Amino acid sequence: MTILRTLTALAALGAPLLAHAAGDAESGAQAFRACAACHSLVAGEHRTGPSLATVFGRRAGTVEGFARYSEALRQSTVVWDEEALDAWLRDPAAVIPGNAMRFRGLPEAPARADLIAYLRAVSAGKLAPPKTRALPDLKAVDTGQRVRAIGHCGDTYRVTLGDGAIFPFWEFNLRFKTDSSARGPRHGEPVIVGAGMGGDRAQVVFSAPQEISAFIRDACP
Ligand code: HEC
């Protein structure tokens, strides 16, 4: 009896969830590529859009730790079930007017069904979320990526790195960013990232906005 019950439970677990859903979760994983630039399926990992790890059955605009919801989404009473997701993915602007998701919509119903089956499977823990490229840990970079000084003269920034190397950048090609997350740089220890080393542009990442202008000196060589 116990064995039978166990077997039944195992069969239920192992049964392809695709059989129960209208869409095909495997194809949905492909379709998710259209979303991956803005959404992660790892819980707590917010990008331009909120993590969709637990989207199924949740009220719109309520994921913890996502600070960029529009008023429209926060005020919405939509609960993300199959029907609501289908309508949203067909035409986001029609479902919640004034929302901030810059996405035209997926006109093909089968593609939406696949995608929804996939989101449901991931939400239920039946499929693993795709591995996302983790942002680098800027506290753990080499000396050669640490920025010791930045001088500005005319239209040029001169960046001195921790190993003593100096790189000049046309001012329009050097970006300044902040990363206040746990993986961001230490206070007062900005880090250079991007194609700067080989190319003509780069980004300097600080831990907080106040550091930026305090760090840059007016200095002509
Ligand atoms: C260009 C970036 C971008 C793309 C591409 C994108 N989204 Fe979004 N998405 C957002 C943003 C930003 C929000 C928050 C919108 C708001 O607050 O008005 C959002 C919100 C959502 C929500 C509501 C989440 C919640 O917590 O209530 C869902 C569901 C969603 N997106 C699904 C998708 C799916 C599925 C795709 C791919 C078909 C997709 N999105 C493509 C940026 C994007």
From TrEMBL:
Residues making up the signal peptide according to the UniProt record: 1-21
Keywords: Electron transport, Heme, Iron, Metal-binding, Signal, Transport
Record protein name field: Cytochrome c family protein
Keyword Signal: yes
Example of a GO MF term: metal ion binding
PANTHER family xref list: CYTOCHROME C (PTHR11961)
Residue span(s) of domain Cytochrome c: 23-123
InterPro entries: Cyt_c-like_dom, Cyt_c-like_dom_sf, Cyt_c_1A/1B
Organism expressing this protein natively: Denitromonas iodatirespirans
